[in-house]
Each structure stands twice: as structure tokens, then as C-alpha cells.
Amino acid sequence: MPLMAVSFFFFICFSVLQIPLFSTTTIHKTALIRPNFTTQQDISPKNDTPTTYFEVTNPIKLPKTKSCSYLVLKHDFAYTYGKPPILTNYTPPSNCPSKKFPKIILEWKATSKGRQFDRIFGIWLSGVEIFRSCTAEPRPNGVIWTVKKDITRYSSLLMTNQTLAVYIGNIVDSKYTGVYHVEIFVHFYHTEKVRNPFKGFDSVADLIVPISRNLPLNDGLWFEIENSTDVQSKEFKIPQNVYRAVLEIYVSFHENDEFWYGNLPNDYITANNRSDIAGNGAFREVIVSLDDVVVGAVWPFTVIYTGGINPLLWRPISGIGSFDLPSYDIEITPLLGKILDGSSHNISFSVTNALNVWYVDANLHLWLDKKSVKTEGKLLEFSSLPLSFSLASNFTGLDGSFVTNARRSISMTGWVKSSYGIVTTRSSQSFSYSNSMVMGNDANLQVVDQTIEFNDTVYAKTWSFSVQVLESFKKFQLHMYSDGVEMGDKSYASISNVTLLFDEKRLKCGSSASSVHNLQNAQGYMLVKDQSIDSGLGSTQQIYKYNDDKGCYFRNISSSNYTVLYDKVINSCSKLINTVS
Ligand SMILES: *[C@@H]1O[C@H](CO)[C@@H](O)[C@H](O)[C@H]1NC(C)=O
Ligand SMILES: *[C@@H]1O[C@H](CO)[C@@H](O)[C@H](O)[C@H]1NC(C)=O
Ligand SMILES: *[C@@H]1O[C@H](CO)[C@@H](O)[C@H](O)[C@H]1NC(C)=O
Ligand SMILES: *[C@@H]1O[C@H](CO)[C@@H](O)[C@H](O)[C@H]1NC(C)=O
Ligand SMILES: *[C@@H]1O[C@H](CO)[C@@H](O)[C@H](O)[C@H]1NC(C)=O
Ligand SMILES: *[C@@H]1O[C@H](CO)[C@@H](O)[C@H](O)[C@H]1NC(C)=O
Ligand SMILES: *[C@@H]1O[C@H](CO)[C@@H](O)[C@H](O)[C@H]1NC(C)=O
Ligand SMILES: *[C@@H]1O[C@H](CO)[C@@H](O)[C@H](O)[C@H]1NC(C)=O
Ligand SMILES: *[C@@H]1O[C@H](CO)[C@@H](O)[C@H](O)[C@H]1NC(C)=O
Ligand SMILES: CC(=O)N[C@H]1CO[C@H](CO)[C@@H](O)[C@@H]1O
């Protein structure tokens, strides 16, 4: 039988040394204890061809002509854990005509064979993160996966020489044999798009300042946030002719916080004398500060990595966001008045209630006024209220229920004077969070229902009263049901159901700019014996709907036991209206 790396609940997409954090002699609390599992047995069809894994997303709309393609890195990632990232010189291809905002696509192609955990990884261009992802877990006959990402917004970097860094924290030994064979391409496409003189919200930045750790170093360029008081910061300086600034945040959570939305409150842990389980409750947020003032936050989507909960759920259809983790933009233009002084400032990150470990970094996208050497700005209004938070616990022994609610809002208004005139920008974020958790069967059963709403609004007004409004309404939902039963003889059975929803509506000047509705349901069971999966099954159904001003995309797909059961794609808006209500 072929073999497979399976990790249950814990330890997933995780790049720190694999020390079992929990003693495995613990009793039967299978929903609480999230150890790693692997197996020599591969519960899969026997054949010789590698399996192709994929994440369901809308294909990138490409211009007809491809100018050029460039293999930027080919590397085998074997024992790379704790070592420096792989570095290579990036040079824009000389045969690529024009510097006129071509469409630029990153293509990640990888294969792996044998047994391996899922590993988090990142790609940086001179310290600017352009891709955060998780590897697929290999199979004995091998797996292949390809991810394409539109990286046009990083054009300013891609048109000049840079250092490309890739870090995957992989560990290879006699048991975990999977080496990741990776090829990274950049594809450049022609576009006829004419540059807008007053660059609107869609334009790409002229300069991107990395808010990440400096090379040379070991591990990734991300900051590692280990606990709730850990603050990681970076000093930076911007040119004095900036007229717009957007901070893009990358985030992923691992080890004790990989399943943060299922973590128990500390009073439960203390009452039950169970310091071996992950605590600090189920609420987390990434806090972004500028010179020690909270200016933004990210309430992240609950990405489940390829080995999470029951790895069989995510084969071959990977979890939402697992192959291309979302990044989050915060418009900080109103704050430019504070940082246009030519001196150094700090951006820092912390994570409310964090347990070890969060990987966080950011890119500061800056738009420069080509017609002046100095712009001016002033912050007019700023409001950042403290987090509103409530927790209602009701438990007896290991069973009970917990309801957590939280809200936050941040808003700011400021003007910037440039050769475009005086532009007043108001930027706001508002968040709400609710999490209901039930523990039953002496904590063998856990049910979590979580909803995050995450709204961003940017409103820009010039003297000529032309107004631009960009709104983003995000809704992230998670349902997780996990039930385990002790079978004796160091074995147990578990079933799990997971629902993930990623919804985002973007409005421009009040009318729809794009919308995505991405819903995944997964069910599975596994029999775990002596920390190995003896048998099991995973099934997934997914509905993906996307539309923007260029068209529509709909996909209805399902898989079970590694096989796609149905896969319906609709590409045309008119057909979509007729087929799906
Ligand atoms: C999964 O497929 C394999 C091979 O086709 C088959 O042997 C196995 O019984 C299936 N498992 C389940 C639970 O249906
Ligand atoms: C970019 O790198 C290439 C290849 O190393 C080199 O030939 C070229 O001179 C560099 N360009 C600049 C502007 O440094
Ligand atoms: C939190 O993490 C930081 C960084 O590793 C460390 O210096 C600090 O001692 C930790 N604090 C606590 C309370 O563990
Ligand atoms: C708590 O657990 C530890 C380790 O399992 C044990 O040594 C200790 O006696 C327990 N304390 C109580 C009050 O049950
Ligand atoms: C940035 O933060 C570091 C560490 O806290 C501090 O030493 C430095 O003075 C700060 N710089 C500025 C410009 O505030
Ligand atoms: C706490 O849970 C118990 C058992 O489910 C229930 O009987 C009781 O009404 C709950 N108390 C509160 C305050 O919700
Ligand atoms: C987000 O926007 C939606 C749509 O306007 C609204 O219904 C919801 O209450 C908002 N949520 C928050 C947290 O602001
Ligand atoms: C899990 O999902 C299966 C299949 O959709 C469903 O039949 C079952 O009722 C679900 N179980 C729970 C507890 O939600
Ligand atoms: C997806 O396809 C399945 C199987 O054909 C069907 O039962 C289901 O209604 C479809 N869902 C949508 C939203 O079209
Ligand atoms: C990869 C990994 O972390 N493996 C660990 C899983 O748990 C067993 C038992 O606790 C450890 O021995 C392995 O090192």
C-alpha cells in the first residue's frame, strides 16, 4: 500500500521543529488533543500516476498576447527548516516590451512524492511578500499542484532587478521523505490599458516598501508573533512626494493557534487542569500600529491548511485559501500627514490573545507624485475605539458551551496636497465576530460556529468634488463539527464536518465592482490507530461564484475518496442567470 502523510488537527502548515507538544498518553479527549498523525497506509485508489490537487477559484482573465515568460527559480526543497530562504537574482526579462502595466502572473508548480506534512511558505521580492501558501501533502505516487496568482500590483518591483527569496520550512528524514520540487515562473502579458492621469483605486503603486524582517536571516521574512504581548515592529521611511498609501498584510497561524477558532477559554483549562490543550479562547485579531497607535486590524479568514482536521477532506480539492492565502489591504492615506516628514517611523504588529505562532508581515504600497518632490498632508479626524468583547461560558467538567462576541471599528480622515490638488480621504474598518462553541461527550465532541464580518470603506474627494468610493464587505464563516470515540488499544475513530464560507462584495462608487461567493462543505471520517490512519474517507462539495465588470464565473464541484464526482463550470453571465438563481 502506498503511504501518505496525514496530520490530524494539529501541526499543520507548520514550520517549527516537530516536537510533540502533548503527551500522547493522555486520555480520550480527542476533540481537544490535536496531535499529529501519519500513516504507512494510503487510503486511496492504487495507481501509478500522481494526483493533481487544486484550489477552486476564478481563472485569471488574461490579455490575448503573452509577451514573455520567465522561469525565476527551480529548486528542490528538502531539509530547509530553520535555514536561510533560497535566494536568487530576479531580473526582468530583456525581451519583454514596454513597461506599461502589463498583466503579470506568478505561477507556482510543484511536485512531491512520499510522505510529508503540509508546510507554510512565502515568496518575497526584495523583502516584499508576493505570495503566501501552503504545500500539498504528497502521496507515494506523487502529487502535482499549480497555483497562479495575479501579481500585477507588484509591477514596480517586477520591472527592475530584485532579490527573490523563497522559504519553505521543510523537514526531510527517513520517515518524512517528501521533497518539494518547485518551479516558479513569472508570465508577462501585454495590455492596451491606458494610464489614468489621476490614478484611481485600480492603479498599481509606484513604490512598495517591505514591512518584513531583513535579510540575511534564517526562516521566512515574516515576523513571528508568539504570544499576546509580543509586538514586532519595523522602522521605515517614505519619500516625501507620496499621495496615496495602502498597507497590505499577510498573515498565517500555526501550531497552538492553527485552529484558534476552536481554542478553549483559560478558565475552562484551569478548572479541568488541562494545561496540555490550546487556550486563550477562540478570538484572535491582528493589530497594526503606526508609531504605537492602533491604525488598522485584520480579522482573518479561517484558512484550513491541506492537513487540517482530516486531511482526506482536502484531496484533491484543497481548502479555501490554502494554496493562495488572502492578504488584506488597509488604506492609510489619511495618515500620510504623520509620515511625510522624511524621518523614520514604525509599523508594528501584534495578535490579540495569540499563542505560538503567527507569521505576519506587510507591504506598504505607495503612489508618488511625479510632478513634485514634496506633498503635504494632515490628519483631520481619527477614531480607534478599544475592542468590545464578551464571553459567556457555561461548563461543568469538560462539557459546556461558550459564546464569544467582539466588535471593533477604526476610522480616519485626512487630506493630501499634491499636483492632483487637495484630496481628502476617509478610510474606515469595521469588524464583528461571533463564535459559539459546544463541547460534549466529555470533550470528545466539539462544535464551532463562527462568523466574521469585515468591512472596509475608502472615500476620496477632490476640490473639484469628484468622488471615489471603494467599499468591501467581507463575510467569513466556519462550521466545524468533530466527534471522536475511543476504541481502546491506542486507537480511536473520528468524524468531522466542516463548512467554510468566503464572501466578499466590492462596490465602486456605489455600484458592484466584484463579488465572490465561495462555499465549501466537507465531511469525513478516519480510524486512527497508534497515531496512524488505518482507514477513512473525505468528501467535499463546493460552490464558487464570481462576477466583475469583465464577466462571470460559476463552478459547482464535488469530490469523494480522491475522485471528482461532478464538476460544472459556467463562464457566461447570461447562462448563469438562466441556470442559477
Ligand atoms: C476509496 O477508493 C478505493 C479505490 O477505489 C477503494 O478501495 C476504497 O474502498 C474507497 N473507500 C471508500 C471508503 O469508499
Ligand atoms: C540587472 O541584472 C542584470 C543581470 O545580473 C545586469 O546585467 C544588469 O546590469 C542589472 N541592471 C541594473 C540596472 O542593475
Ligand atoms: C512573549 O513573546 C516574546 C517574544 O518571544 C517574549 O520575549 C516574551 O517573554 C513572551 N511573553 C510571555 C508572557 O511569554
Ligand atoms: C493536574 O494535572 C497534573 C498533570 O497531569 C497532575 O500532576 C496534578 O496532580 C493535577 N492537579 C489536580 C489538582 O488535579
Ligand atoms: C521604532 O521602534 C523601535 C523599537 O521599539 C524603537 O527603538 C525606535 O526608536 C522606534 N522608532 C521610531 C522612529 O519611533
Ligand atoms: C448551562 O448549561 C446547563 C446544561 O446544559 C443548562 O441547564 C443551564 O441552563 C445553562 N446555564 C446558562 C446560564 O445558560
Ligand atoms: C458590514 O456591511 C454590511 C452591509 O452593509 C452590514 O450589513 C454589516 O452590518 C456591516 N458589518 C459591520 C461589522 O460593520
Ligand atoms: C455531517 O455531514 C453529513 C453529510 O452532509 C450529514 O449527513 C451529517 O448529518 C453531518 N453531521 C453533522 C453532525 O452535522
Ligand atoms: C450543484 O450540483 C449538484 C449535483 O448536480 C446539485 O445537486 C446542486 O443543486 C448544484 N448546486 C447549485 C448551487 O447549482
Ligand atoms: C512529524 C511529527 O511531529 N511527528 C511526531 C508525531 O508525534 C509522535 C509522538 O508524539 C512523535 O514521535 C513524532 O515526532
TrEMBL record:
<dbReference type="Pfam" id="PF25156">
    <property type="entry name" value="PNGase_A_C"/>
</dbReference>
<feature type="domain" description="Peptide N-acetyl-beta-D-glucosaminyl asparaginase amidase A N-terminal">
    <location>
        <begin position="64"/>
        <end position="380"/>
    </location>
</feature>
<feature type="signal peptide">
    <location>
        <begin position="1"/>
        <end position="18"/>
    </location>
</feature>
<dbReference type="InterPro" id="IPR021102">
    <property type="entry name" value="PNGase_A"/>
</dbReference>
<dbReference type="Pfam" id="PF12222">
    <property type="entry name" value="PNGaseA"/>
</dbReference>
<dbReference type="InterPro" id="IPR056948">
    <property type="entry name" value="PNGaseA_N"/>
</dbReference>
<keyword id="KW-0732">Signal</keyword>
<protein>
    <recommendedName>
        <fullName>Peptide N-acetyl-beta-D-glucosaminyl asparaginase amidase A N-terminal domain-containing protein</fullName>
    </recommendedName>
</protein>
